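Changelog note: in this version the structure field was regenerated for every chain. One regenerated record is shown below for reference.
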Amino acid sequence: MDIHDEGIFDAVQHTEILRLPKRNLATFGTTNIQYYLVTEPAYSEFVDVTETVVREGRVISERPRIVTPYYLSHLEGFSTEAKRYFDMLVGVHGADAPGLFYTYRNEPRKLTIVSGNLPSVVDKLNAEIDRRGDPLASIVKGKDEFWDVSLLKLIYKMTRSSIQGNLREMGGRGLLDMDDSGVPLDARVRIDELFREVAQGEVEPGKLKGELDRWGLFDEYEDRFFAVFKKW
């Protein structure tokens, strides 16, 4: 284990989910999770201060898709350390077992250093969230230097709490059914959506090509791909 892995494990051990969103991730839509990630400043080890770092932002969860766990390493907006932590989780569950792919995008908004110790700052944040009545707000206590690893732990916890309900709803629509090629119906639906979006100029052909390659289906769709590519 190198120094980066040690830092990741230490960050995970010192992460506390102080407030979870009251709603799970949507099965057929986008979920916007507002987060407040609170840490003691890194310089507090060297300077005696009573300050707390508050990072505000949102994590956007797109509609979950049926894929293999291999997809889980494709995240946006996270550091190398955070991605390595998620790779560790994938390794625990195996590389080939089918499952749900949750696409997340981290959008940090601002960083504020406020006076007051961490518990008092958390109390104020909880009061503000209660006042707004925001069911998708969360508070996470983490480590300053690996703050997005702590954020990723929140995402993992949200995924774990949502997956059974998402699978149940998707199964009710037959999206978990596999065809003779071992490809789930949900993946075929997604590919058809991408073909339509490319044809309408909404997404670039490269996104469609990447999806086909990840499923090993490019040869099957090659003629259709080049037909829509010529029109793009």
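Spot check on this record: Residues 185-231 form one domain. The longest strand covers residues 104-115.
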